[in-house]
Design goal:
single chain, alpha/beta, globular, Rossmann fold, 5-stranded parallel beta sheet
Length: 221
């Protein structure tokens, strides 16, 4: 086979050169802003090797079945998802019942339970910064690069849009039931809540006596 330089190569030799060139090309892609990669991937039928990475930030107090359904849907649109644990410095309060470590554990177990490949997800703790001007740069500094933001929070949407990111609103999934606040309220009132969280999350919550913790916090507020 004749190359563009006029050299004669065997079929095997050409394949080796092509493979080497492919590895070099992939190394170059790693240095490109993911937002550029996403646009190229969407525009080109030859972009299957490029990585589109997104982020979804929430407090996950606790992670529930609605979260899992949204994560599954998002992973159908992108290659990798960063799951940002917001207010990660908080724990043992009425609004932030679980510590960051407990939330990481519950998220990991929930993803494993539904068979989500962990190589496609990254769990990152994001403590609060009470400054709109620096919040996005703060979050970005703690995470791998990403090109898309998934959020239903108007404040989060506005800040990332102003920073130049593509923002998508994930579809609602039984929002009246699947909300952390609704679950915590049911726990306090002794109402049924157990079927709103994945089985493995329920096991962790029982292990750490989440209902007892919440009721004690409620008495001491």
């Amino acid at each position: 086979m004749e190359t563009e330089l006029g050299e004669i190569r065997t079929e095997q030799g050409t394949e080796k050169v092509a493979s080497c060139a492919g590895r070099k090309l992939r190394r170059r892609w790693d240095k490109i802003d993911p937002r550029v990669i996403l646009k190229l991937k969407q525009a080109s039928q030859f972009g299957s090797d490029l990585v589109a990475r997104a982020i979804m930030i929430g407090r996950f107090q606790p992670i529930h079945k609605g979260h899992i359904e949204v994560i599954k849907q998002v992973l159908q649109e992108v290659d990798e998802l960063i799951i940002g644990i917001g207010s990660s410095q908080e724990g043992h309060t009425l609004e932030n019942l679980f510590t960051a470590a407990e939330r990481v554990l519950m998220i990991e177990k929930a993803l494993e339970e539904v068979g989500i490949d962990r190589s496609h997800t990254h769990i990152v703790k994001i403590p609060d910064v009470h400054n709109d001007a620096t919040w996005v740069s703060h979050a970005v500094s703690l995470t791998p690069q990403f090109s898309v933001v998934y959020s239903r929070n108007p404040w989060v949407q506005r800040l990332f849009k102003e920073a130049g990111y593509e923002v998508r609103t994930p579809p609602p999934y039984k929002r009246k039931e699947y909300q952390g606040e609704e679950i915590r309220n049911r726990m306090l009132k002794g109402e049924r809540w157990e079927d709103l969280v994945p089985k493995v999350v329920l096991e962790v919550m029982r292990e750490i006596k989440a209902v007892e913790r919440l009721k004690n916090l409620s008495k001491n507020k």
